[in-house]
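Let us work through a complete example step by step.
Step 1: write down the sequence.
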Amino acid sequence: MSGAIWVLNGPNLNRLGTREPEIYGTTTLAEIEARCREEAGARDLVFRQTHSEAEMIDWIHEAIDTGAAGLAINPAAFTFQSMAVMDALKMVSAPVIELHISNIHTRGPRYSDSLMSEVVTAIVAGLGARGYPLAVRALIDMDADRA
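Step 2: predict the structure and record it as tokens.
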């Protein structure tokens, strides 16, 4: 077993549970974190949320520098505009999963052009909150396959 599994969340995801429940559901970010920790079991898990692009980039660098076994990222609005986050993700040598609660590819042109998709290992989208623990499980399995 190598480094921690990282789960990073972008802007406004702290409002899950009350933010547009018809799109994002009623599960809170705290509940999602609990589900991820349950899925990870004894495995180290880093779970964070930020509204700051700079902080997100710093966390990606921290994941790299601490030998993360894998990284799941819901970049939220950064998905469509942040070349800087995309460039940081390019430096991650471990598997990276781009994660979205809704299916961004069915929400129209504004939401379907992900910069991150070009540089990640896999994408989980449209599975609601259940996509998070699935991404954690996938990263753990991918890490085991690399061992």
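Step 3: interpret the result. Residues 19 and 54 are 24 Å apart (CA to CA).
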